[in-house]
UniProtKB/TrEMBL annotation:
It comes from the Bacteria. The keyword Transmembrane helix applies. Residues 253-305 form the HAMP domain. It comes from Hyella patelloides LEGE 07179. InterPro entries: HAMP_dom (IPR003660), Tll0287-like_dom (IPR021796). The keyword Hydrolase does not apply. CDD domains: HAMP. It holds the Pfam family Tll0287-like. This is Putative sensor with HAMP domain. GO terms for biological process: signal transduction. Keywords: Membrane, Transmembrane, Transmembrane helix. The chain crosses the membrane at residues 23-46, 232-255.
């Protein structure tokens, strides 16, 4: 009821406005509704688009790290394998995960990747820096429970900071991995000396033990999306304002001014001035109205002339 009463109060105000003011009011309302709708739609679309771009970079980085892992296990590890038995300290350079992480740290010198981080989150790692937290452990379980899940992506919070992550499962797909991860008795003595015999053992061939993850601060994703949205919204706003200005100019020249001239003609005719005439070259609705007004003026002039002649004949 209140809304209906409010509309009833506004109706007379709207009816008393000039035609140009009414049009501008309608255009402003359309403009506000369009900008608000575009803003919401663009926010959704651009965030998805930026997430896809970030994910694309992350997966490219993962593929690169997998190449590093493969190179380490096939080229580096065989050359240094003998030193694992004779050296007292373990050589981490022989571990694919170590090489991948070190190479990624070097990759972060590139401005495009400086905000990215890489981790091979593992349920039972040899090095505790690779230990999976609760969130990462749950992700590994998802990969284990459903072999059709090849990748995961989303947002997570770490130390009150939001991150966008992409993850893929890593399985023990080479028997050479079990040289260090089957049992403490079979592991190189240098590994035991460096890391102890409590962590990183009892792995099984083809078992998913790791989630390969690349993360980036969520504010980078949102900042990029917001920047694109602001640019697009600025362009839309500019074109909309130009459209409003063009419509106003057209309305003033093609509608308002001709109507004002016809109004003056009508006022003059009502005061007895029948010598004025309004011409409009276009054959649009305004032109048709102008011709009708001129015909009315001629008809009125003829009627007055007939009345005057009749009056003269009666004298």
């Amino acid at each position: 009821m209140k809304g209906k009463k409010r509309v009833e109060e506004l109706t007379p105000m709207f009816q008393n406005l000039k035609l140009g003011t009414k049009l501008n009011l309608i255009l402003v309302l359309i403009f506000i509704a369009t900008i608000a709708s575009c803003n919401l739609i663009l926010s959704y679309i651009l965030e998805i688009k930026v997430e896809q771009e970030v994910a694309g970079k992350a997966f490219l980085a993962m593929e690169t790290m997998n190449s590093v892992r493969n190179y380490t296990s096939t080229q580096i590890q065989p050359e240094l394998l003998y030193r694992l038995e004779i050296d007292r300290a373990f050589l981490p350079e022989t571990v694919p995960a170590y090489s991948a992480r070190e190479v990624f740290e070097d990759l972060r010198r590139n401005a495009d990747y400086q905000d990215f981080s890489y981790k091979e989150a593992t349920l039972n790692p040899t090095s505790l820096r690779d230990k999976a937290d609760e969130f990462e452990a749950a992700m590994i379980q998802k990969f284990r429970q459903n072999e059709n899940v090849k990748e995961l992506a989303g947002f997570r919070t770490v130390s009150n900071q939001n991150f966008y992550y992409v993850a893929r499962p890593l399985a023990v797909n080479k028997s050479s991995c079990l040289q260090c991860h089957s049992t403490p008795e079979k592991a190189p003595q240098s590994l035991i000396n460096t890391y102890g015999s409590q962590n990183g053992f009892n792995w099984q061939l083809n078992e998913i033990v790791t989630s390969q993850m690349v993360s980036v601060p969520a504010n980078r994703v949102f900042a990029t999306a917001n920047s694109l949205r602001s640019t697009i919204m600025s362009i839309i706003t500019l074109f909309f304002l130009l459209a409003i200005a063009s419509i106003n100019a057209f309305m003033r020249l093609a509608i308002v001014k001709p109507i004002q001239k016809m109004s003056l003609l009508s006022t003059g005719v009502s005061k007895g001035n029948l010598n004025t005439e309004f011409t409009h070259e276009n054959n649009d609705e305004i032109g048709i109205l102008a011709k009708a007004l001129n015909r009315m003026k001629v008809s009125l002039q003829m009627a007055l002339q007939m009345i005057e002649e009749e009056q003269n004949s009666q004298k």
